[in-house]
Design a protein that fits this description.
Blueprint lengths: L4 E4 L5 H12 L3 E6 L7 H9 L4 E5 L8 H12 L4 E4 L16 H31 L6 E6 L12 H21 L4 E8 L5 H4 L2 H9 L11 H12 L10 E4 L9
Parallel strand pairs: 1-2, 1-4, 2-3, 4-5, 5-6, 6-7
The protein binds NADP nicotinamide-adenine-dinucleotide phosphate.
Length: 257
């Protein structure tokens, strides 16, 4: 048997790299994706290979839906199978503007990368997974969408981001319902405040809020925290639970009195 294979979008740094590391530790070979040229991610590939994973770098803008099939062909040509798709790549608005000042360009950019691209990539990968399951090449397929607590927490200076993540939550449920009978499980992992390049610019604000008790666990989340949750789902440890949300936020969204 060949090893299971995961395609992790945005796997070249931040949460995606945390996910890739945990999947490597769980015995997965990895296709990781990003925007940068291959030479820029060679050290990341070397690190994952040192964990025992076969690796492939797929340079692709997830918003470029016309390039999805070629990217999937690349993964299948390299590894012969794809067991898990982790839709992790995502962006914050370039400018945190009040919802009344949000531009159409920013709305379109964030929605294209965070929602439209991942949904259509999921559709394309699911079709290939159905063929692989039908041919007995994989036991089950798994699609894991990385959303955010912003799927439910309203931030008026990042409306387009919140709306995109709320859409990811519904996309997860729709795909879970469509694919449950056909051997593909679909989950949503919902991170809280996590230390990456995305949050570096607002680290002082979050340091203060965390110290004041915003989260029950008074620390930042790490890419490894999210990686462990995704690896558990991708490995099939959690059963009879398709469509579920795993919130990894240190208790930020837990109602308290
Ligand atoms: P990050 O540190 O900014 O890393 C983003 C990753 O996505 C990089 O690998 C980047 O590739 C890739 N990427 C960006 N745009 C892309 C595109 N159009 N097509 C393909 N790849 C693209 O972000 P992060 O904090 O790890 O966030 C990862 C996911 O977690 C996002 O969906 C984000 O919304 C979500 N999230 C983050 C937090 C947080 O606090 N950090 C909280 C909740 C949810 P390059 O390296 O080539 O640039």
């Amino acid at each position: 048997m060949t090893r299971p294979v995961a395609l992790v979008t945005g796997g070249s740094r931040g949460i995606g790299l945390g996910i890739a590391r945990e999947l490597a530790a769980h015995g997965f070979d990895l296709a990781i994706n990003g925007l940068r040229p291959p030479a820029d991610v060679q050290t990341v590939l070397d690190e994952l290979a040192a964990l025992g994973a076969g690796t492939r770098y797929i340079r692709l803008d997830v918003a470029d839906t016309g390039a999805h099939d070629a990217a999937i062909d690349d993964v299948l040509g390299c590894f012969g199978r794809i067991d898990a798709l982790v839709n992790n790549a995502g962006v914050a608005p370039s400018v945190r503007a009040d919802i009344l000042e949000m531009t159409p360009e920013s709305y379109d950019r964030v929605m294209a990368i965070n929602l439209r691209g991942p949904l259509l990539l999921s559709r394309a990968v699911a079709k290939r997974m159905l063929e692989l399951v039908g041919a007995g090449r994989i036991d089950r397929g798994r699609i894991i969408n990385v959303s955010s607590i912003s799927a439910t927490v309203a931030s008026i200076s990042r409306a387009e981001y919140c709306i995109s993540k709320a859409g990811v939550a519904m996309a997860t449920r729709l795909l879970a319902a469509r694919l449950a009978d056909e051997g593909i499980d679909v989950y949503e992992v919902r991170p809280g405040i996590t230390a990456t390049d995305m949050t570096a610019a607002v680290s002082e604000k979050y340091d203060r809020l965390i110290a004041e008790g915003l989260t029950v666990e008074r620390r930042w989340g790490t890419p490894e925290d999210i990686g462990r949750a995704v690896a558990m789902l991708a490995s099939g440890v959690l059963t009879y639970a398709t469509g579920q949300v795993l919130t990894i936020d240190g208790g930020l969204t837990m109602p308290r009195l």
